[in-house]
Design goal:
Low-confidence stretches: 1-36, 239-254
Mean pLDDT: 89
Shape: globular
Strand content: 15-25%
Largest sheet: 12 strands, parallel
Structural class: alpha/beta
Radius of gyration: 28 Å
Strand order of the largest sheet: 13-14-15-16-17-18-19-20-21-22-23-24
Helix content: 10-25%
């Protein structure tokens, strides 16, 4: 059990009458009653869900599961394996060719890139939330509380999320550990489910979290009862009577003369210009405006306003009803982002299928990261209703049954496929590679159920010769033979992530062969490969002049001289991670930073 109860006596200021009453009680020998609040302080009991992590699915190092329980590291600062670390930081990932373009109409206040959900033992009315950050703090942008008890045996009903605190991405002055405890909003329900959302784009290195403390009281505190009404995106129905009451700019009277009403001359603007103006509104604003008058209702419901639709910022409120209301407007939809949506019964197969059947015909991009409502039937619907689909993201859909992925092979026009942290198995991925020969970007990071990556590499070399980016982060069984086949067949590769692939050995010459075979290479991650040596770095310097991102964290065989040669030969280099490289100390890093100020040279530390 990770919680304990603290009894605290809190003084409160009272009126003069209350003070006199209390004094008379003491003087008359009566026992004075002091206000006592029982505050529960508890650490997270369980990690329930998360969008990504740096660690492996089969270990505890750098994984989100480290956030459960008491601190492992705090108050120490530095890079420790016992902390929770997200997969990315900075803007490096957004600069890569494999990164999709951002969606239009994303609200300016939506900053979240990753999240983690934590369950606590006791439901309480929160009074404080404390996050122990041990390395490069400042990534947390939102803290939310949920009304559902994740440990209840009853199915969730009427699930509500409330924002306790939100802010913009920040960058702390130092990477040192800190206790982050923002002032939170009081809510009207008890909770034992918190969600932290982060944005690491301003940070110079991976943020590391050690523990989360939830403080609260069991009895409901006195709250302000009045709350401003919020128009939900689900409230999209438009009454003809209401719209008729508002009318147009002019209405004809009984004598045949035009009477001036409320639209002014707005409707005299060209249709295209009004459409352009409305294209700058967020989705909720567009839905509100549609309820103002018939003219704007017509413009706001025009399918051309909905060629791109990102519902990720509204994940907490999205339901089958929301999709149903939007369905008639999305007949020309080309790009759809449903990432993070649908958890705990908010979206169902029925609602999703109905929407896809009505709106999937022109769809070319579908983002479904962390969509835990998905099942095999949903993927079958996608394969049947989206014949033009070119991009599919199923990142961290880790509850999908392995059999479900076989339906992806029917999407033969796919160019980008993200399967990070899914349960896809070898049979399914080989089937996909057999039929989806137009693939340009493929992410198989942390796909631990693929038995033989050499076979996958051979199939990629034979069928996907136009591949531009490949992520094999933490694949456990790729050998030099598979890598040689891959780089010989896929010579268009610009990005290759081989981080934490322990079976690759520099002594076989595989990394030098890689460098000679991929002259277009821009990003190469060889993270935690202890065998990378000077010969490999020198071959990269000679053969890959366009290199921009290189991660060789953990090697003990690379010297400052080879790094200097690399920096001189690769003028476009932006990121070089030499953390835990024993031959490259901080003095060397400072010297290289002085010589090459445009390169971000990373060197983590422990303290």
């Amino acid at each position: 059990m990770f919680y304990y109860i603290c009894l605290r006596r809190r003084s409160r200021s009272g009126t003069r009458g209350e003070a006199l009453t209390s004094r008379r009680a003491v003087e008359s020998g009566q026992r004075a009653v002091l206000p006592v609040s029982v505050e529960v302080e508890q650490y997270a009991k369980e990690v329930l869900d998360f969008s990504s992590h740096y660690g492996s699915e089969n270990s505890m190092s750098y994984t989100m599961w480290n956030l459960a329980g008491v601190p492992n590291v705090y108050p120490s600062s530095g890079d420790f394996t016992q902390t929770a670390v997200f997969r990315a930081y900075g803007t490096w990932w957004e600069q890569c060719a494999s990164a999709p373009p951002p969606f239009r109409r994303t609200p300016k206040g939506f900053h979240s890139q990753d999240y983690i959900e934590l369950g606590f033992e006791e439901p309480v009315y929160p009074t404080a939330v404390e996050v122990l950050e041990t390395y490069y703090p400042g990534a947390i942008v939102q803290i939310l509380a949920c009304s559902h008890n994740p440990f209840s045996q009853n199915p969730p009903t009427d699930v509500r999320w409330e924002v306790l605190w939100s802010g913009e991405p920040t960058k702390a002055l130092t990477p040192q550990a800190r206790q982050f405890s923002p002032t939170i909003k009081h809510i009207s329900f008890p909770t034992n489910l918190l969600r932290l959302e982060v944005n690491s784009s301003l940070l110079d290195y991976y943020t590391e979290l050690d523990a989360v403390i939830l403080r609260g009281v069991k009895e409901r505190p006195m709250l302000a009862l009045y709350k401003m009404p919020v128009i939900d995106i689900s409230d999209l129905s438009d009454s003809e009577e209401e719209l008729s009451d508002l009318g147009g700019p002019f209405r004809q009277g009984g004598d045949g003369k035009h009477q001036r009403t409320g639209n002014g001359y707005f409707d005299k603007l060209p249709y295209e210009l009004i459409q352009l103006i409305l294209s700058h509104l967020t989705l909720p604003d567009l839905c509100r405006l549609a309820q103002s008058c018939k003219l704007l209702h017509q413009h706001c419901c025009d399918p051309l306003q909905y060629t791109q639709l990102s519902l990720q910022p509204y994940w907490a409120r999205l339901s089958d009803a929301s999709l149903g209301h939007l369905q008639s407007r999305c007949t020309l939809l080309q790009r759809l982002n449903l990432s993070w949506t649908g958890s705990r019964g908010a979206l169902t197969l029925t609602g999703f299928s109905s929407f896809m059947k009505a709106c999937g015909l022109s769809l070319v991009c579908l983002e479904l990261s962390c969509c835990h409502f998905l099942n095999e039937a949903c993927l079958e619907v996608i394969s049947q209703t989206c014949p033009e689909l070119q991009e599919l993201n199923l990142s961290s859909c880790d509850r999908l049954h392995p059999q479900a992925f076989t339906h992806i092979s029917k999407l033969t026009r796919l160019r980008r496929l993200v399967l990070y942290r899914t349960k896809i198995e070898q049979t399914a991925i080989l089937s996909i590679l057999t039929f989806c020969i137009e693939l340009r970007h493929l992410n198989l990071g942390s796909c631990v159920r693929i038995e033989d990556y050499d076979v996958v590499a051979s199939m990629l070399a034979a069928r996907c010769r136009s591949l531009c980016s490949l992520d094999l982060w933490r694949c456990r069984n790729l050998t030099d033979r598979g890598l040689a086949e891959l780089v010989s067949g896929c010579r268009m590769l610009e990005e290759l992530d081989l981080g934490w692939c322990p079976t690759l050995q520099s002594s076989t010459g595989c990394f030098q062969h890689l460098a000679r075979s991929l002259p277009r290479l821009r990003k190469l991650f060889l993270t935690a490969n202890r065998t990378v040596c000077d010969s490999d770095i020198e071959e990269l310097a000679a053969s890959c002049p366009s290199l921009q991102h290189l991660d060789i964290l953990g090697t003990r065989l690379v010297s400052a001289a080879s790094l200097k040669k690399l920096l001189q030969s690769c003028p476009q280099l932006l990121l070089l991670d030499v953390s835990f490289c024993s031959q490259v100390d901080m003095r060397v890093v400072q010297e290289l930073c002085g010589l090459f100020p445009n390169v971000a040279i990373k060197k983590s530390f422990t303290q």
